[in-house]
Amino acid sequence: MKSKWRCLFSFWALMALASPAGGAPIEIRAPGQQAIPLAVTRLLPITGQALPEVAREFQEVVAADLDFSGIFRLADPEAFLSDAARLGLESGQVDFEQWRLLGTEAVIKGGYLLEG
How many Å apart are CA 57 and CA 73, to the nearest integer? Predict the structure, then answer.
């Protein structure tokens, strides 16, 4: 009788080990949160000579990195209004209402200074 139970137990143990864990595989393709609307403007010269190629490259790298993170949805630079062309590095110098019109929740502005 004991050998019958051992055989039955062994059979079920082998079946449990041989069968898949049950259920479908889980695949995660994207972050679960909603993307944050963000505007990244070109850097503007603080004083002196303007270097548009430096400003363009900086903007492209920062925008690509933020976009790659999957956390941000970048605003189209073609839609930027007049505030994007003003330096405005302090919050009192930024026209946040213009950025709200574009549907952005955040804006990145910056300046550069060439020395030497």
Answer: 19
